[in-house]
Amino acid sequence: MPTTVVGLLLFVGFLVPGFVYHAQRRARVPQRALSALVETANLVTVSTATNAVVLVAFGLYRTWQPRHSPDVRRVVFEPARYVSENLGYVAAWGCALLLASSVLALILGVRPKLVARFSARFAPSIVDVSAWYFVFESGDPDDYVLVGCDLRDGSYVSGLLDWYSTEVQETADRDFAVGPPIRYRPSGESEDRTIEGFQRLIVSAREVVRMYVSYQTELPTYDDDADA
Asked: What CATH number does domain 131-227 carry, 2.30.30.100, 3.30.470.20, 2.120.10.30, 3.30.360.10?
């Protein structure tokens, strides 16, 4: 652990990209509760990776423009003297490199599918998220997600996905909502009908026996909708 103020600032700065990535992931992907050790390891891993990429880019830039970048040799062997003589210059470069690393972490957090596709090339992908999230978000971003459900009482409902619980635990105490066109088929009947006059239908996971999901490029229409 750092024992000086400067060491503490460097330690916190090193972990900033990991915090940025973690915050973006939690805002976009349901996360299971992790132990403090695993969360710390995730922060350190992401920070190390993004900082390493930025430092490699900095090294290439310094090779090209050695006069317009900090003297790495003096930073390593004469840190106190060099930094004190060029405090503003070194601080500006440090902030710029930290910002670049944080932006890279932000991109990884905002686009987690890019990471999944890349990692799938090296090892099988283990999905540690809710099945609802995995299936509902598998289509293209512009697709309509059509959800149909067989319910416990023998009836059937369907509609365009509007909202769903991001609870990671696969429990029955979850809900999702569908919007128009909302279709309903009572138990024992063979034809669906459109439910008119309502904008949302909330379905409890406790009542669902089977769920069917399809990705539509156009808004679904039905014959009875056209007749109406």
From this structure: 2.30.30.100
What tokens appear for 118 in the block?
């890349």
d(CA 162, CA 64): 52
Residue 120 has pLDDT above 70, yes or no: no
Q: Read off φ and ψ for residue 113, nearest 5 degrees.
A: -65, -30
Q: By 3-state DSSP, what share of the chain in percent is helix, strand and coil, each rounded to 5?
A: 50, 20, 30
Supply the pTM of this predicted model. 0.53
Token pair recorded at residue 49:
């990776």
The amino acid occupying position 22 is H
Instruction: Work out the percent of the chain whose per-residue pLDDT is above 90.
Output: 19
| CA pair distance 59, 206, nearest whole angstrom | 57
Q: Strand, helix or coil at 154?
A: coil
